[in-house]
Amino acid sequence: MAENTEEKTSLHPRNPHRGRYDLVALTKALPKLAPFVFTNEHGIKTIDFTDADAVKVLNKAILKLQYNISSWDIPQGFLCPPIPGRADYIHYLADILAKDNGGEIPTGDKVKVLDIGVGANCIYPLIGHRSYGWHFVGSEVDYIAAGSAKKIVESNQLTDAIEIRTQSSYEHIFKGIVKPGEKFDITMCNPPFHASAKEVNVNSQRKWKNLKQDKNTDLNFGGRNTELWCEGGEPRFLNKMMSESKQFAQSSKWFSSLISKKTTLPGCYNSLDYLGARDVHTIDMAQGQKSSRILVWRF
């Protein structure tokens, strides 16, 4: 059922972040980045990726320079996403939508995307709208995160392009968010992939250890429970999403989700086969040594 794909070692060809960060241009766009920039032992300008403040300011500079987002911030303790990898998801979704459009990527606000778990950072709608002009609905179960996302949208005058909706139930994905008769071209999700707070801490310690060996590694700083873990972890969350997607099969042409763990895939394939999905694809993504994948399906 799964589409075979070759292993990737770099970002999507259309991803503007394939090379090193242009810290000269980024600092020019946002002078507040300057204090965090230094030249390493190899003569290369960089920042300290172990410094959460530096990473956040870097994100602000990228969003301003690349995406014309002049106002962006997140509350203390929320996920600060690595933008290059987030952009990759958007560009691969564009390829999927092109399949039903004669090979051409559909652009403009007639394309409607649902981002499940938009987060306090609202990063996918920002990148997707600026890259392709798509209209986004972002759902969020954490009311503080939803408020932050709304503030970002409003402060950048994007209320006509991005709508934030609060999910009132932890038990539902699409129910309570998708309105009767509403149609989406594709849904997307970056699900919580840990099964417990303890698992989050173990993984974070491993990342910090790896960072000491690789100063170019991008880290996700912070992250609340709803962003990082849920009971049953990634498999249970995805099983719930896939089951509910069947109920909303007429509401979206495609459904998709990031898959962090390759071992999660076989169970997903079995579930989608049982649910009667007629078209399933697995898209490999990679950024340096970090690899993940997108699962895409429709009924």
Quick recap:
The chain has 299 residues and is an alpha/beta fold. The protein has helices spanning 23-29, 52-67, 83-98, 123-132, 143-155, 197-211, 225-228, 233-247, 265-275, and strands at residues 38-39, 45-46, 112-116, 135-140, 162-166, 184-189, 252-259, 279-287, 290-298.
Helix-strand sequence:
HEEHHEHEHEEHHHEHEE
Widest sheet: strand ordering: 5-4-3-6-7-9-8
- Secondary structure tally: strands: 9
Percent helix range: 25-40%
Largest sheet: 7 strands, mixed
What would the principal axes of the Cα set say about the shape? globular
Number of domains: 1
* Oligomer kind: single chain
Q: In terms of structural class, how would the helical and strand content be classed?
A: alpha/beta
By CATH, the superfamily comes out as Vaccinia Virus protein VP39
Return the CATH topology. Answer: Rossmann fold
Distance between the termini: 13 Å
CATH 2nd-level architecture: 3-Layer(aba) Sandwich
Mean pLDDT: 87
Q: How would you explain this protein's 3D organization?
A:
With 299 residues, the protein is of the alpha/beta class. The chain has one domain (76-298): 3-Layer(aba) Sandwich (Rossmann fold), CATH 3.40.50. It contains nine helices and nine strands. It has helices at residues 23-29, 52-67, 83-98, 123-132, 143-155, 197-211, 225-228, 233-247, 265-275, and strands at residues 38-39, 45-46, 112-116, 135-140, 162-166, 184-189, 252-259, 279-287, 290-298. Helix 5 links the parallel strand 4 and strand 5 (162-166). Helix 1 packs across helix 2 (52-67), helix 3 (83-98) packs across helix 4 (123-132) and helix 8 (233-247) runs parallel beside helix 9 (265-275). The longest helix has 16 residues, at 52-67. It starts with 22 loop residues before the first helix and ends with a strand. Mean pLDDT is 87; it is low at 1-7, 194-205 and 211-224. Its main location: cytoplasm. One of its GO terms (biological process) is rRNA base methylation. It is found in: Cytoplasm. Specifically methylates the adenine in position 1618 of 23S rRNA.
